[in-house]
Amino acid sequence: MTDATSDSPRHPVAVICKEAAEAYEARLVETHGVCVLLGPEAGANLVVAYDEREAALWIDHYKWSEYEWTTEDQGELDSLAGAVRAVQSGDAELHFRQEGRNLGFLGGRVGLSPW
């Protein structure tokens, strides 16, 4: 793994992660197919694993969501970018439910900020 500093052509998911790292002063470490953002104070650590047309996003160690896109329809990439921005800006949260003595992970939600 190396710090992401190259300006060579990149996978669109790597570009999303690089932009988030720069915007929110997070540290980005990446290798082929995996980006890790070590979050700033307001955000969380996140991992994005990806291949040609699919990606999965984990917040800390919880799987947030999976994304698939095509050349013609890149809406899922926009959704991934929005989730990464929300997590890094502190505008997202994980939800849990008590299951006996344990907490069960339910999923996440973005767009919590009133402004």
What attributes does this structure have?
6-stranded antiparallel beta sheet, two-stranded antiparallel sheet, alpha+beta, 115 residues, 2 helices
**How would you classify the quaternary structure?**
single chain
Q: Indicate the proportion of strand residues.
A: 35-45%
Mean pLDDT: 84
* Backbone CA Rg: 14 Å
Helix run count: 2
List the secondary-structure elements in sequence, H or E: EHEEEEEHEE
- State the secondary-structure class: alpha+beta
Largest sheet: 6 strands, antiparallel
Question: Which consecutive residue ranges, at least 5 long each, have pLDDT under 50?
Answer: none
Query: What percent of residues adopt helix (DSSP H or I)?
Result: 10-25%
- Strand order, largest beta sheet: 1-2-3-4-5-6
Q: Which of globular, elongated, flat, extended, rod-shaped describes the shape? A: globular
Number of strands: 8
Number of domains: 1
Describe it:
This protein has one domain. It is built from two helices and eight strands; from the N terminus they run E-H-E-E-E-E-E-H-E-E. It has helices at 12-24, 75-89, and strands spanning 2-3, 27-31, 34-38, 46-50, 54-59, 62-68, 92-99, 102-110. The strands form two sheets. The chain has a six-stranded antiparallel beta sheet with strand order 1-2-3-4-5-6, covered by helices on one side. A two-stranded antiparallel ribbon has the order 7-8.
Summarize the SSE layout with pairings:
Elements: E1 2-3, H1 12-24, E2 27-31, E3 34-38, E4 46-50, E5 54-59, E6 62-68, H2 75-89, E7 92-99, E8 102-110
Antiparallel strand pairs: 1-2, 2-3, 3-4, 4-5, 5-6, 7-8
Helix pairs in contact: 1-2
